Amino acid sequence: MNVKFRKAEIEDILFLNELEKLSFPANRQNSISSLRLSIISPFQEVWIVELKKNNEIFKTAATVLYPYKKTLRIFSIAVMPEFKGEGIGHKLLEEIIQTAKRKGYLAVSLEADANNEKLVKWYSDHGFILDKKLLDYYSSNEDAFRMVKYLEDTDFIQSNKKISNVRNFIVVDNVNKWSFDIETAEVISAKDYLSDTKYQNINNARIFNMCNSYRYQSLGYYVSLLAAARDHRSMPNVTTIRDFTDLSIIRNIADDIDEIIQTSLKGLEENQYTLDICFGKTSEKQMTKLAKELYQLFESPLLRVVFIKTKEWSIKKISPISLDSLKNLDIEDIQRFAKEYFNQKRFKRKRFKHYKYDLAIMIDPDEKYPPSDKKALELFKKAAEEVGFYTEFITRSDYDRLPEFDALFIRETTTVNDYTYLFSRRAYAEGLVVIDDPWSIVKCSNKMYLYERMIKSRMLIPKTWMLSKGMKFETMIDEVNFPLVLKQPDGSFSKGMYKVNNLNEMKESLKLMYKTSDLIVAQEFLKSDFDWRIGALDGNPLFASKYYMARGHWQIYNWDSEDNDDLHSGDFETIPVDKVPLNVITTAIKACSLIGDGLYGVDLKEVDGKVYVIEINDNPNIDHEIEDIVLGYELYLRVMRSIYDRIEKQRGGEARLVSL
After folding, report:
1. Contacting residues for 190 by C-beta, under 8 A, at least 6 apart
2. What whole-number distance in Å separates Cα of residue 557 and Cα of residue 369?
3. Are 152 and 182 in the same domain?
4. Is 342 inside a domain boundary?
5. Predicted pLDDT at 166
6. Category of 596 on φ-ψ map: left (φ > 0), alpha (ψ -120 to 50) or beta
7. Domain holding 426: CATH number?
8. pLDDT tens profile 140-176
9. Distance between CA 262 and CA 63 in Å, rounded?
10. Whole-angstrom Cα distance, residue 520 to residue 446?
11. Are residues 27 and 93 in the same domain?
12. How far apart are CA 489 and CA 53, in angstroms?
């Protein structure tokens, strides 16, 4: 049999699309756009199998492969119906296995329909063994088997799955001066950590930097710097050390706890007060809450905070200090605080064998309209664990726990002026992979930035004007046609918007809006029955929905309605991405590229054949049985695969054996 294997080209797209339709159920088929991305992706391989017969060349089969560092994963494999039974599939599978061996892979993995006994047996006959049953893998009640063929000895099975426990190191200038007995941490000198090569290749290490000085180019500074280079988590990290030198940054970060500062220091007669904090605690009971909050914002083992009072209390200086400098704390308290800190369960948490990384999903249990409902959150967690994450839901009270994780996925409404931004910024500074990343929050949170960015890039948006207090907006009346939409620059979920039908309504609305913002956005009103929402991830479309206007209202959400059901009375329709008009998709993806490569939701209006960008959201809604109707569970897996692959790319670590 004259069979040839080659990499697919764009010209093969129609064949691949036809093969998908003939080989897989509708809910398991890749769209044309997905196939195109697979062909051009540097992280995937698509092979075409050609058969030469009677001087004719026939395309007979294809496979999509995900090559990782140690594992080659078969994402799909299919043979045209008219060529089945001729051994094409057997030859293709053997070629994949031989290629994996030549390139040094240690295993080939795949997922097979658990209800297809013939298919499972076929893979078994080729040396694949059952690794795990994946419940509801394709959709509800459609399970799969993960199957693996190991190409080396079985030692690989254990070495590839085993994840070493976290090791805690307390780094000090002089080990002989450390007198505390901490069972869960090893005490080493700064010089040993910096120069001994055995510390370079330790995985999952946390470094508690307790050197006497963190000044630039000191031993303490280099401990935190090299920890970052080694993918070790250090406390304090280099960013925190740098923040200590800038009072404006300190006051900006601490602004979120100003009320706690004023309450805690109220009643003090002096105009200056110094608070020493040891692992988030202090001996002064009335300052317990303040100490914890400051530690969470400026995480460092030992902190000294100096406050001054003018009209109100403010931070004059905050700095990490050495043990010898803790004159305001008794040595018994210091030892107790240190032992309590390191003996917390979080440092002794056991990780299951098949979890390689730790993921925090940040939620607000009390949020009335969160970006994901409870069922969607459950599916995100399930997908994360399947991909290879130990997963926990965290809240705003877990700020100090961020260094425990490898990635942060924010699933509560984000704004640049609250704690969600601080979480994102802190996680990014700690070296975590973050969605939503801090710069996406900043860019998407402000409509003025978005519109300026769109205009500069010549994206089509509704006619837009920037209004400011004292502006003689009567001069622009000749340029506009009512109605207009007035928007707060930082409004979200259609809040902070007013539709005005004439000059008087405009004046009244602006008078109200100027109370909270010096600048207001005015836009022409574009009437449409629905808004497109295109979800995008990694610069590629993820889902496409039509959100219809609320009943009798001009917006999707009617926030003024007394009936809460009316908030969502506008219908929705989620459709396959490849069924969306091409200009809608391309406009959305281009708009996202102006922000970043994270997870976004682009709102667009299609009017008279033109596509207008309305706004870009950094934290798009993904709710069960709404945005996930087309892709189902696969949508959640794609988000988690992206987060996982970002960690892998960032660290150059081993690829996962578990399914993507």
Report:
1. 171, 172, 173, 211, 219, 220, 222, 223
2. 11
3. no
4. no
5. 65
6. left
7. 3.40.50.20
8. 888 899 899 988 543 444 444 433 356 788 898 888 8
9. 64
10. 11
11. yes
12. 65
When mean pLDDT is compared across 288-302, 539-553, 562-576, the lowest value belongs to 562-576
Verify that 518 and 637 share a domain, yes or no: no
266 and 184 in a common domain: yes
| Assigned token pair, 139 | 């959709």
Residue 633: Cβ within 10 Å count: 21
User: Using alpha carbons only, what angle is made at residue 218 by residues 216 and 222, rounded to the nearest 5 degrees?
Assistant: 90
CA distance 640 to 175: 42
Task: Say yes or no: 223 and 307 in one domain.
Answer: yes
Q: What end-to-end distance do the CA atoms of the chain give, in Å? A: 34
Give the burial class of 119: count Cβ atoms within 10 A of its Cβ; 0-12 exposed, 13-18 middle, 19 or more buried.
Answer: middle
Residues 147 and 173 in one domain: no
Does any domain span residue 658?
Answer: no
> Does any domain span residue 445?
no
Question: In this predicted model, what pLDDT tens digit does every residue of 520-547 receive, in sequence order?
Answer: 888 888 888 899 999 999 999 999 999 8
- Domain for residue 335, yes or no? no
Number of structural domains in the chain = 5
Q: Do 498 and 419 share a structural domain?
A: no
Write down which residue in 103, 128, 158 finishes a domain: 158
Six token digits for residue 496: 């902070």
Q: What is the mean pLDDT of the chain?
A: 83
Q: β-strands 107-113, 142-150: how paired? A: antiparallel
Q: What is the mean pLDDT of residues 601-608?
A: 94
- pLDDT-derived band of residue 426, with 50, 70 and 90 as boundaries? confident
Name every residue whose Cβ is closer than 8 Å to that of residue 182 and which is 6 or more positions away in sequence: 170, 338, 339, 342
How many residues make up the chain in this entry?
A: 660
Please give the pLDDT value at position 605: 94
DSSP letter for 285, please: G
Pick the residue with more confidence: 158 or 297? 297
Q: Are residues 279 and 399 in the same domain?
A: no
pLDDT in tens, 612-633: 999 999 999 999 999 999 999 9
- For the entire predicted model, the pTM comes to 0.55
Of 300, 328, 356, which residue sits at a domain end? 328
Percent of the chain at pLDDT > 70 equals 88
Q: Check: CB of residue 250 under 8 Å from CB of residue 318.
A: yes
The set of residues, in sequence order, having a beta carbon less than 8 Å from that of 1 and lying 6+ positions away, is: 51, 86, 87, 91
Q: At what angle do helices 374-387 and 633-651 cross, to 10 degrees?
A: 50
Q: Confirm if 338 and 278 have CB atoms less than 8 A apart.
A: yes
Average pLDDT over residues 556-568: 52
What confidence score (pLDDT) does residue 574 get?
94
What CATH number does residue 508 fall under? 3.30.1490.20
Q: Which two tokens stand for residue 398?
A: 């877990």
Q: Which pLDDT value is given to residue 655?
A: 36
Q: Enter the DSSP assignment of 614.
A: E
Reply yes or no on whether the pLDDT at 178 is more than 70.
Answer: yes
* For residues 102-118, average pLDDT: 89
Contact partners, residue 358, CB within 8 Å, separation at least 6: 351, 389, 390, 391, 392, 404, 405, 406, 407
Alpha-carbon gap, residue 369 to 364, rounded angstroms: 10
Report the C-alpha gap between 402 and 360 in whole angstroms: 8
Provide the domain limits for residue 412: 347-439
